[in-house]
Model the fold of this input.
Amino acid sequence: MMDTRRTTEAGEPVIEARGLHFRAGASHILRGIDLTVERGEVVALLGANGSGKSTLVRSLVGINTPSEGTVRLLGQPLGSGRGAAVDWSRIGYVPQRAGAGGGIPSTAQEVVASGLLHGRRLRLPRGWRDQVESALDQVGLADRMRDPVHLLSGGQQQRILIARALVREPDLLVLDEPVAGVDVASQEAFADTMRRLVDGGLTVLVVLHELGELEPLVTRAVVLGHGKVVHDGAPPRARHDHEGAGRRHRHPHADDNTLGAEARVLDLEVRP
Amino acid sequence: MITLMLTDPFMQRALLAALLVGVTAPVVGTYLVQRKLSLLGDGIGHVALTGVALGWLVGAGMGLTPNDALAVPGAVVAAVVGSVLIEVVRRRGRTSGDLALAIMFYGGIAGGVLLIGIAGGSSGNLMQYLFGSISTVSDADLWLTVVLSLVVLTIGVGLRHALFSVSHDEEFAIASGLPVWALNVVVAVVSALTVTVAMRVVGLLLVSALMIVPVAVAQQVTHAFGRTMLAACVVGVVVCVSGLTITYWHNVSPGATIVVLAIAVYAVVSLVAPLLTRGRPAHDPHPDLPDDVDLPAAATERAAAAAKECR
Done:
């Protein structure tokens, strides 16, 4: 499918953010972010809780409207024109966790099918059931198609959200902590899926708390600190004193918003 | 006896109106429950009352007979304007929105009572709109009901996947480039039209019940959005038609009968549903995955035994 896609103009960045600022009330969350992601890159967005990672990716996909600055996706500006020019069929977004969801139980099939709607396409295409099934198959949940999502475990719900982004066969995948709270076996399965997609030409921007199983795939790391880019280049090593079996349990991936940036130390060692 | 009822022209009109309302109200109600706006119908109903009185006032000013000829069109206009305003307020921010909505609800009722007085009527004239008056459905009312119901059903069913997407996860819909604001306004306008369609059958004060209670019934027996909507429509039609039929032989309020019937169905289903699902064979809900920690041999054995029990 990838080869039939329109490709981004030669040399045009997939994501290009210039001078992004985001203010929520009195807090200045993003303080002048420049970020470029080129075609075929796998960029990890790292930083302590509260450093602005989620706010940044939410600004890049149009959920947050930045107070200042511009975002271009696949060469088209996002924003004032309601992002009408952006080709949304080529972008998949995976939020940090399943939202509160609706008041009515929905099946995995129904939730994943909603990923087939984008831009001006408001109705499901022919053969949508097969597309949904193959997306669920990629995350290993094809047998749960008719199960209500709210009865699945947290890790399975996370995989449903990944399938919802994959179902439109995007060229760019933006993921917000896709493996937070997911066991090692599922993380490995997720890394395998990602490896296959990246080999097929997928561009990835992924918010991570630690590189984990995705480490071999990551081509570049961008580290945020206090709303600014503090590192952009080779993926940093994890701190040695944090390594070991106990580590995962000492960092329960608490909600980004509930912890002040000041309260957490930057969890990464940046190589000079 | 049934043929007697079916040959009565009043009853024919009333039954058709009840049938249409029974289908449309739950379709819209499903989206409202999905986005946790169950009380939106109530809010629109209050605002529609001002529209009824406004229509009456304009009709009286123009010397129309009957003097409530413009009441239903007035309600349609006020409900649509009110629902779009509610959506605007909701978009601005929820905290202040809650208060603004409450003010709009009270303003709707007070405005209606005030305006009907100015129009030379009394608040008694509003009773038929507050509690429904299906037996007085005229041909013109019926046509309006048919047209509005078709509009609501075409949008509610035709755009169901897009409306599901924005109702289920609005942020994902935004990040997919969907016209979220327009779709939200569509839901609001369709809700407004449904309120005015159902106004003659169950009355503005009970409209919301017909949108929400069938969905509450359906939710207990289904686990999918599409099926919930379908089951809710079946429940809606059954309670509307049977409620109306009861009132053909017994002199009770049709609107109240329909709503009480719907709530009775809800109560019965909530008692029966657990018995039905209990016997259903379920597969092991725990996936068979290796643990992140190394377990001692005894624990591994116990885990294997536990897995067997679940099968």
Residues 48 and 266 of chain A are 5 Å apart (CA to CA). Confidence is low (pLDDT under 50) at residues 1-8, 241-272 of chain A. Chain A has six helices and ten strands. The first helix of chain A runs from residue 53 to 60.
